[in-house]
């Protein structure tokens, strides 16, 4: 997967790179959701910078509803103008801060085609840290049971 860390301008819509990215993003989403369903989200730490991310997120977006996020609102021209400087603050703090990451639109539901949007990694962290700290993800442990991670070696036998 070293190809995923290469500069984007080296590729021209290479379908194999897109497929690798999609697999990595889905795997991250699946693991994160299983963790959410297994532990108390309020004690979950996503990064060593959770406190800073949460503080700056709520300072910049104090009224953003995070239980259900409307993708068109999050990605409007006005909101993009607010998110861009927020994200850039983490350029040298959060590794791969601008990588594409999958975020659930409705916090009370699992990842699905209808309930998933593409955001930057720092947006994912900001929203999910807030959801965890504000108790929005608490319902998941009751509603969903974690799925065991599939061992690719077991499928080969």
UniProtKB/TrEMBL annotation:
Residues 17-139 form the Polysaccharide biosynthesis domain. It holds the Pfam family PBDC1. It comes from the Eukaryota. GO terms for cellular component: cytoplasm. Gene3D superfamilies: yst0336 like domain. PANTHER family: PROTEIN PBDC1. This is Protein PBDC1-like.
């Amino acid at each position: 997967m070293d190809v995923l860390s290469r500069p984007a301008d080296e590729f021209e819509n290479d379908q194999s790179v897109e497929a690798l990215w999609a697999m990595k993003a889905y795997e991250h989403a699946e693991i994160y959701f299983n963790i959410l369903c297994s532990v108390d989200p309020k004690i979950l730490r996503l990064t060593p910078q959770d406190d800073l991310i949460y503080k700056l997120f709520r300072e910049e977006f104090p009224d953003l509803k995070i239980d259900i996020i409307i993708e068109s609102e999050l990605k409007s021209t006005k909101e993009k103008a607010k998110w861009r400087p927020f994200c850039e603050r983490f350029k040298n703090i959060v590794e791969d801060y601008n990588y594409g990451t999958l975020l659930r639109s409705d916090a009370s539901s699992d990842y699905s085609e209808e309930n998933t949007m593409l955001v930057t990694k720092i947006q994912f962290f900001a929203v999910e840290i807030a959801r965890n700290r504000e108790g929005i993800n608490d319902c998941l442990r009751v509603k969903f049971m974690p799925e065991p991670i599939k061992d690719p070696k077991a499928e080969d036998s």
